[in-house]
Amino acid sequence: MNVPDQVLERSAETAAKLQLVDCDIHPSLNHRQALHPYLEKRWRDHLDTYGSLAHCVYAGRGGPYPRFTPETARRDAWPPNGNPPGSDLEFMKVQHLDAHDIRFGILEPIVGANNARNTDLSAALCTATNDWQVDEFTSKDKRLKASIHIGAEDAELAVEEIERRAGDRNFAQIQLGSRSVEPIGRKRYWPIFEAAQRNDMPIGFHVGGPSPYAPSPSGWPDYYIEDHHVLTHSAHAQVASMILEGVFELFPKVRVVMIEAGFAWVPPLAWRLDNHWRKMRSETPLCKRPPSEYLKQNVWFTTQPAEEPEHREDLRLLFELIGFDRMMFATDYPHWDFDDPQRALVMPMSDAERRMLFHDNAMNFYANLD
Amino acid sequence: MGKHIVAALAEIPPGSQKLVHVRGRAIAVFNVNGELFGISDTCPHQGGSLATGATVGLTTSEEPGKFCHSRPGEFVRCPWHSWEFDLRTGQSWCDPRKFRTRPYDLSVEPGEALVAGPYVAETFGISVEDQYIVVEL
């Protein structure tokens, strides 16, 4: 990307005037037992005795791959107190919220709470995670909004947690991972969508999540770079599953956003599904309209990590095909693949498009941002 | 053009690095085994501060299973997306055609010589016994 100086200057100037909503900020625990105060004694004892479950078949770490950077974080995001990136609100304010003049930031905790196994333990950890977000972050800085962290595998317990939080203005969305044990559109998960619609809470699918299976359809990749790439396939599959299983027909007011899963795949997915649907729609009677119509009606996407095609007009073409009204800016702070609001997404945009992307779409999409 | 003292040599011992400002320019200064390098601090990709990046060597592979590590410490990895820049040239390793960060020539001068001028030291006093890193701008 050879960017003429005047484009960068103009975008910096416009961004300074823009209000910004960041749809993906990762808060982290400042020590291993940070959720203990929010757990019943039964679960504290359980964790102290048996430890916690990992999301994958390999023992010893939360994930099967070494990460690119310690804590998957920007190297400059470690707070001066030495605690993990994302755990220190004061440092997050200075380095991120104040520095980028962020009006609202959506917290996406990835703290190992929503495991697919032992769902009673998962539900307790999710409840603890939600209490912790309010205690440590949203009650202390009104710019931050929490996510109702739930485990998808026990829909009954998930709905209980949604109901517990739905009236609470600290929460902006329900949070799921993009990987579940079965395709997320199946009937066993419908109570979650029903509760989301009833409470007018959107659902954010953050890439990754608690599936115990290999991320690639052909097993475990050798390298982190490959793992980092195949992660996004789960988002393609989940979008197709929700559409074809009829989730958006049954719960038409449900709003979902695919977070950190890329977006260049969206137009061809829509073309392909429409093509299949024209021939085989009798197989999926709950998908009553062309799949692309549900995409335009019920599904949004966050921008980070933004695609960086050689020609920036190609990037703009993607946004035009998907729709500027479907895209919402995210930084992924403090993770290493952070997108800077003034430097990512280098492409020509009108002021109206810029406002949609960086502010208005998220203000309309999320709950309790006002 | 003028010579500017950016730091005392003792402040940036081998294996360390420091962000300095000279006439409004942010410069990342690195000491790699006693050799000094200066590059523009702002990553040309998305603007990360290169002075907070890790210094690394070059790992290349001719064929699967065989690896070669060379030039230890002579590249800085941006703290954000880990783009690597050659400290000798400022060029991006993955896309040298399009991306580079400006390299600055640094020299080491004894305090004795600096006291005589025509050098500019804005932020600290100079001791005649010490060595200083100087950039010409």
UniProtKB/TrEMBL annotation, chain A:
It comes from the Bacteria. GO terms for cellular component: cytoplasm. It holds the Pfam family Amidohydro_2. GO terms for biological process: secondary metabolic process. Residues 21-366 form the Amidohydrolase-related domain. Keywords: Lyase. GO terms for molecular function: carboxy-lyase activity; hydrolase activity. PANTHER family: 2-AMINO-3-CARBOXYLMUCONATE-6-SEMIALDEHYDE DECARBOXYLASE, ISO-OROTATE DECARBOXYLASE (EUROFUNG). This is Amidohydrolase-related domain-containing protein.
Automatic annotation (TrEMBL), chain B:
It holds the Pfam family Rieske. PROSITE patterns: RIESKE. Keywords: 2Fe-2S, Dioxygenase, Iron, Iron-sulfur, Metal-binding, Oxidoreductase. One of its GO terms (molecular function) is dioxygenase activity. Residues 4-115 form the Rieske domain. InterPro entries: Rieske_2Fe-2S, Rieske_2Fe-2S_sf. The keyword Repressor does not apply. This is 3-phenylpropionate/trans-cinnamate dioxygenase ferredoxin subunit.
